[in-house]
Amino acid sequence: MNDRSQYLLKLAKCNVKVDIANLKVKAKLYGKAIVMGKIVVQENDIPSTSLAMRSLPHIDFADAFKSQLPGNQPQNIDSVTRAIFLKMPEWITGLLELRNIIVRPLGLKTTIDPNPPSDRDKLKPGVTVGVFEVLDRRLDEIMLGEDDKHLDYRVSVQLERQGKACWVIVSTVVQFNNWLGRAYFVPVKPVHKIIIPAMMRYGLEN
After folding, report:
1. Residue 188 and residue 32: Cα distance in Å, rounded?
2. Which long-range contacts (CB under 8 A, 24 or more apart) does 10-17 make?
3. Residue 30: helix, strand or coil by DSSP?
4. Strand partners for 68
């Protein structure tokens, strides 16, 4: 491994340490449940029917979180996806901007769409929702994601109906493409497990 590769590896392992204690996530961990205000976000298995499960040649990381939609939340997949991925807390937006600063020298993608789709538009493949591109969809599921040189990822937003109740499941799968992807994901993984439930809570409550 040459000097540049060693430098990139050290940088990917996060020379800039994120102090999770200062993220101001007001959550309490009880086993695998994350209780945030009135919204309970529960760690869950990825549904076998999820588009994400068959979207990549192989999966190196996978997780999912589930929450019941509040009674006043529209029970359609476009509204739920917008609520979670367009209405991010400021501290998460700040982390994404910090991430862009760190990875820009590595040649990784840093796109953030400044013009989100109208609330009236259907989220079709090719449309971007914040920092995420819609890759596929069906009646009760939208799959977001991106392919980059270090890793490919997919995020599925899926509705599960049980009588009058409706649940949203956000599933993430990741495929590492090289050593940089594996190194990059070391500091990202614990932050990811805080950010996704926080985004779900914030979007569904607001």
Report:
1. 19
2. 11/102, 11/105, 11/106, 12/106, 12/180, 12/183, 12/184, 12/186, 13/183, 13/186, 13/187, 14/102, 14/186, 14/187, 16/98, 16/102, 17/187
3. strand
4. 167
- Identify the H or E element spanning 89: none
Cα–Cα distance between 51 and 87 in angstroms, integer?
24
Confidence of residue 39 (pLDDT cuts 50, 70, 90): confident
Q: Read off the amino acid at residue 160.
A: E
pLDDT at 20 over 70: no
Stated pTM of the model: 0.78
The answer to whether 153 and 145 are in contact (CB under 8 A) is: yes
CATH topology of domain 3-205: Alpha-D-Glucose-1,6-Bisphosphate; Chain A, domain 4 (3.30.530)
Rounded CA gap, 86 and 130, in Å?
A: 6
Is residue 30 predicted with pLDDT exceeding 90? no
Could you count the other beta carbons within 10 Å of the beta carbon of residue 197? 26
In sequence order, what are the residues at sequence separation of 6 or more whose Cβ sits closer than 8 angstroms to the Cβ of residue 138? 51
